[in-house]
Amino acid sequence: TKGVEGTSKGDVIQRVNNNMSHTSLMPGVPLPSVTLPLMTGESLDISKTSGKNRLVVVYRGAFCPFCKNSLVDIQKNLSKLSDANIDVVALSADSIDVTKKFADENGLTFPIANELKEPEMRTLGLYVSDPKDYQPQTYRFAEPAYFLLTPEGKIRYLCVASFPMGGRVNVDDLIMGVGWVEGEIKRNPAFQDVIWGGK
């Protein structure tokens, strides 16, 4: 039996069964080590922090207008993020050439990692989409997400979406949340062990 746009009932069941294997990361655990190439030709392990909080932003690709808007907003607020002791790295499945063009066109100066593969997407607990459904590209891509890492590389906040409009960071809210947590830790060092959503 064929359903919407020629999709068979069997296809739908198979997709549901495949999605049941999805696993999510939990707050309070270290972000898995994933090393990807940067536009500069260097490599970056997205889990390795440098004494700062780290905002790791997963975007769908240069084709996505929602991602463009999100990344441009982050670029506009880079100085505020830096003042809040937060550095930024973004990543997608796009090639280096595609990312270079995208970054140049939109004035993005923070590190952007490339060539995220499906096994790495699964390792990070991301939702994966197939471009053959509506995009003229050959590689699968991850739906949006972001992770806020502590200076020790543990996940403090995460937001993982299964659809294009989700998983978008509000910079002002994030900065307020980080500032509040750091203030509480100064008053009570044991507060650094508080984990939201980790049960």
From TrEMBL:
It comes from the Eukaryota. Pfam families: AhpC-TSA (PF00578). Keywords: Redox-active center. Gene3D superfamilies: Glutaredoxin (3.40.30.10). GO terms for molecular function: antioxidant activity; oxidoreductase activity. Residues 25-186 form the Thioredoxin domain. The keyword ATP-binding does not apply. This is Thioredoxin domain-containing protein.
